[in-house]
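Issue 218. Parser rejects a valid record. Input:
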Amino acid sequence: MSLKAVLFDFNGVIINDEQIHLQLIDEILIQENLQPQRVNERQASLGRSDRACFQQLLHNRGRVVSEEYLIQLLNRKAQGYGLEIEKIEKLPLYSGLDDLIFQVRSRNLKLGLVSGAIYKEIELVLNRAQLAEHFSVIVAGDDIATSKPEPDGYLLAVERLNQKYPELNLQPQECLAIEDTPAGIQAAKRAQMQVVGVANTYPFHMLQRCCNWTVDYLTDLELERVQEVYSQKELQVTAGEC
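Output the parser choked on:
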């Protein structure tokens, strides 16, 4: 078995924008005459799609909305996200991102992105950061009906990579996921992928329990060593779920 593709999460791995998301969700709840998020709700939202977050928050407050109205809320948040990003002179991208992307591409590995964020939010950041060209496939929150920790997003990324590169014959076990939250890690593990946990959002020791590799920063990830592990014939994944 060899490593053929590296799949990045977006929020918390590529860009440090979690506070922007939490703020925008609170603003929309208040506009809807609803209470803003409680501490436990904020924690539970990390790593999950905007759709899943809004559905749970509205349910917690006894509000039932139609699919059409939910989409309106998601679009309002995406519009607000764009306005907030425009205010930022320098995007808060995580250190080491450019170097890791270079490592992936120099080894002829495919690069993809799997996120619960809406596509227009991802596209906005990647285009502004001049990173869009590097990602062969992007699976966004509006591509699937489920949210991490369900594996659907990662499995769809494998399917799309195989559609784009039929000769690749990619299997989930040949992918490496880079995640920062327990929900994201569980999603990748359930898709039968190995995972690098980067301690951008949760402490190192929390991620270490359930990842194949754990790093404090993207700059600490040695892709060459990871590839060597993949090339071992009798690879045994011993890490459990968070």
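Fixed in the parser; the record now loads. The mean pLDDT is 93.
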